[in-house]
Specification:
2 strands, 124 residues, single chain, 3 helices, mainly alpha
Length: 124
């Protein structure tokens, strides 16, 4: 059996080149790709958390807004909500709100309500 020394040297060169390429090129590249995947997953998790916080705050805001509108309507005297209806031959309608003088009690009630129920959401 004859061994060709050139063939053996070429095989050794191939394995050396493969080893160095794997060790110094492919391994760091795969490590960088894995780190990128991990950071991407982490960002997606953070985004989902922020989205859930946003949804919760929006839900709370809408609930407070509805409650605020209801309570504000209760705080307004009845005369302020009365309006006059005008009809013409063209079926056009216009509304005007009668002028109402607020009593000091109603002003204080509205002011207390605004102070108690209005809040500002601040991201920390």
């Amino acid at each position: 059996m004859e061994l060709n020394i050139t063939l053996v040297l070429q095989i050794l060169q191939f394995f050396c080149a493969y080893y160095f390429l794997y060790r110094f090129v492919f391994a760091p590249a795969s490590k960088i790709l894995e780190e990128n995947e991990q950071s991407k997953d982490l960002l997606y998790r953070d985004l989902e958390k922020e989205q859930s916080v946003k949804d919760a705050l929006l839900k709370k805001f809408h609930e407070k807004n509805i409650m605020f509108k209801d309570l504000l309507l209760q705080a307004i005297p009845e005369k302020a909500t009365q309006s006059i209806y005008y009809a013409s031959k063209f079926s056009c309608a216009s509304y005007s709100v009668e002028s109402v003088e607020f009593v000091e009690k109603d002003k204080q009630k509205t002011e207390d309500f605004l102070i108690e129920h209005l809040s500002q959401v601040v991201k920390k």
